[in-house]
Design a protein that fits this description.
- The complex is a heterodimer.
- By secondary structure, chain A is an alpha+beta fold.
- Chain A contains four helices and 17 strands.
- In chain A, the strands form three sheets. A seven-stranded antiparallel sheet of chain A has the order 11-17-16-15-14-13-12. Chain A has a six-stranded antiparallel sheet with strand order 1-10-9-4-3-2, with no helix packed on it.
- In chain A, strand 2 (27-31) and strand 3 (34-41) form a beta hairpin.
- By secondary structure, chain B is an alpha+beta fold.
- Chain B contains five helices and 18 strands.
- Chain B has helices at 5-8, 148-155, 161-164, 263-283, 303-315; strands spanning 12-16, 24-30, 33-39, 44-48, 62-64, 67-69, 76-77, 83-85, 102-103, 105-108, 111-114, 135-144, 182-185, 188-198, 208-218, 221-228, 231-241, 247-255.
- In chain B, strand 17 and strand 18 form a beta hairpin.
- The chains are: A alpha+beta, B alpha+beta.
- Chains A and B meet through loops of A and helix 3 and helix 4 of B.
């Protein structure tokens, strides 16, 4: 099979919430245009190509038996290495060497099952506040979106839409002007700092404040922001899973320091509301695949983070979800 | 129309005759072509489902005085497919070009058959239908979001019984398949006397060791005879290639015993068995059956499938294969 993307194959992508995986039962997932089967046994997670080599049936319709995954069609049974160890129609016959499935790297983090389609995975993205006892932290998603991963990340980095799409929450149309800020493109990512935006409700607490943003794009489909507003520090990491070129799942980890009087439920609802405001707009963008040629769309001063992001994707050679 | 000379010039089922009420029209689809099937007192017609005037579907129209009337402007076609009346100009003789694309029709086994091209052969034989020693019970049609060759190969497959049909056609404690032979003959693929232990071979609920003899009669038609002593349970599976993603399987079961068993119960049994197959067959990838035998893995128990794939290649079948 052709490699779907020379860069993204080496990245980890969340494919399923751990809580959505039932014991003894595999689940289907999809990553970079390929159907995957996800299953767990004895605390270990497995992500394979969702195909039995015998007759091409989906292993995700099968079941976990004695620490192995059994195909639903003829019961071919695969051990954790993906090798067929039993063919029930011929119990005495040693399964042929070709009787194996493609096994991908798989692990758990942040309550999600992650997969990587390469044998040499990059580091898993780190959310620095995850182990910080001084913050409240949450995970949200996946938000399924009919949009390419790069379009979703670019929306996350976008400042000028805040007073329009998120009017009354993250901006106001009467204060829509975006001031100067610093952007730096480095080999390991894009960094935007010194961003100041006035926001009616920067963190779900309902208190207006001048918000100070810092953005970091740490992988092609992973970005992080920290926002200092009043006495609270709000951080968020977004990971976009490239399901198909124009279909993604967005996953969120967020932390809140301060704003102790704001109930957690209120912060979650605030985040949900903001995401649901973005979704129809991002899904409407055409072309669906983010144009890396800077001549293709128009760019202004406020779009310097997007410009740097597109240039960086181009330098890395990200093809899936871009044009 | 899907480009497959073998299937275009073959007969396919588009309706069950007894379910076509007189003076009604209904839509059907074959090889990506929309058809209208309609019945008058004397005959059944199968046409392309299109009025030449503005391209409306005739299947949305009504049968009146032995003619089919287009739902849009009332153009009225006789059983030969000629437009005989244009209501907007009642005194004008309809132009010669105003006729439908009528297809040949045969009725056999209570099924309506048609052909989109020039019929190159006959409909597949199923002698049990007219044999008084047998009672025949139709079932289906079963709609698959899968292509015909995958559906037929599943029909010919014995290794999946203990897993997909546990408690019905197989048992997880009896998974081993004994050796058998499959051969390609001038009449199709035949695999004889495959012994299988089944908890409920026919829907009557009595376990038995049975012997299956399979035959693929046409690229998309297969049958089996399941024998236990003198008892014969036969089934024919006729798959209509609907379009590039869908198939319709028409089944008939015939038994020379258990005449007192409820036909409804036996039909329901087949409904259950097919519902068990459906998600698996629809999950198979690639959707097109690989005729290159290196593409998937084959065991001794897959000899019928191997012969079927080789035979499809010999016939030059394009639809649903890769």
């Amino acid at each position: 099979m052709a490699i779907p993307d020379p860069v993204l194959v080496h990245d980890w992508h969340p494919i399923l919430r751990v809580e959505d995986l039932q014991s003894g039962k595999p689940a289907p997932a999809r990553l970079l245009g390929e159907d995957l089967v996800v299953w767990s046994d004895a605390g270990k997670f497995h992500a394979w190509r969702d195909l039995c080599v015998h007759r091409g049936a989906k292993l995700s319709l099968g079941k976990v038996v004695d620490g192995c995954l059994q195909c639903p069609y003829h019961g071919w049974t695969y051990d954790v290495t993906g090798s067929c160890v039993r063919i029930p129609a011929h119990p005495e016959q040693k399964p042929p060497a070709r009787a194996k499935t493609t096994v991908y790297a798989c692990r758990e983090a942040y309550g999600w099952v992650w997969a990587c389609m390469s044998g040499t995975p990059n580091e898993l993205p780190v959310f620095p506040e995850w182990d910080d006892p001084g913050v409240r932290r949450f995970t949200m998603g996946p938000y399924v979106m009919d949009a390419s991963g790069p379009r979703i990340i670019e929306n996350f980095l976008d400042l000028a839409h805040l007073p329009v799409v998120h009017e009354g929450i993250l901006g106001m149309e009467s204060r829509a002007e975006i001031g100067r800020y610093a952007v730096e493109k480095r080999p390991d990512g894009v960094f935007a700092t010194e961003i100041v935006v006035w926001q009616p409700d920067p963190d779900g607490s309902g208190h207006p404040a001048e918000a100070h943003y810092t953005y970091q794009v740490i992988r092609p489909l992973t970005a992080y922001l920290s926002k200092l507003a009043g006495k609270s520090v709000f951080t968020m990491m977004i990971v976009a899973t490239p399901v198909d070129e124009a279909r993604s799942m967005a996953w969120i980890v967020l932390s809140m320091r301060g704003a102790e009087s704001t109930p957690s439920q209120q912060i979650l609802e605030w985040t949900d509301r903001v995401f649901l405001q973005d979704k129809p707009v991002v899904q409407s963008q055409r072309p669906e695949l983010l144009p890396l040629d800077l001549q293709a769309e128009l760019h202004l001063n406020c779009d310097r983070t997007s410009i740097a992001y597109r240039q960086w994707l181009n330098e890395l050679g990200v093809g899936f979800g871009t044009s | 129309m899907l480009d497959d000379p073998v299937l275009v010039n073959d007969w396919h089922v588009v309706a069950r005759a007894s379910e076509l009420a007189p003076d009604t029209a209904r839509p059907a689809r074959l090889l990506g072509v929309d058809l209208v099937v309609w019945r008058t007192e004397g005959s059944i017609q199968v046409w392309e489902d299109l009025c030449v005037h503005r391209g409306a579907k005739l299947s949305g129209g009504r049968v009146k005085d032995g003619c089919l009337q287009c739902p849009y402007h009332g153009w009225t076609y006789n059983v030969s497919g000629e437009c005989v009346r244009i209501p907007a100009h009642p005194s004008q003789k309809p132009p010669v070009r105003a006729h439908t694309n009528a297809r040949p029709v045969k009725v056999a086994y209570d099924l309506v058959w048609t052909c989109l091209g020039e019929p190159s052969g006959d409909i597949p034989p199923y002698p049990e239908w007219d044999d008084p020693a047998y009672r025949s019970i139709p079932s289906g049609p079963y709609a698959f979001k899968a292509l015909g060759p995958r559906v037929i190969e599943n029909f010919l497959d014995v290794g999946h019984f203990p897993f997909v049909h546990a408690g019905y056609l197989g048992d997880p404690g009896h998974t081993e398949i004994d050796d058998y032979e499959a051969e390609i003959t001038p009449d199709g693929v035949i695999a004889r006397d495959i012994p299988i232990w089944q908890p409920d071979p026919d829907g009557t609920g009595r376990a038995a060791k049975v012997a299956y003899t399979y035959a693929a009669l046409k690229p998309l038609t297969a049958r089996f005879t399941k024998a236990q002593g003198d008892q014969r349970f036969c089934m024919i599976d006729i798959v209509t290639p609907v379009d590039a993603g869908n198939s319709l399987a028409w089944a008939i079961m015939s038994m020379n015993y258990a005449f007192d068993a409820s036909a409804e119960r036996i039909r329901l049994f087949q409904d259950v068995v097919t519902a068990q197959d459906l998600p698996i067959v629809e999950s198979q990838r690639p959707e097109m059956l690989p005729l290159d035998l290196q593409a998937e893995l084959h065991l001794r128990s897959d000899r019928t499938a191997i012969a079927y794939r080789k035979w499809l290649r010999q016939l030059g079948l394009k639809y649903g294969t890769s």
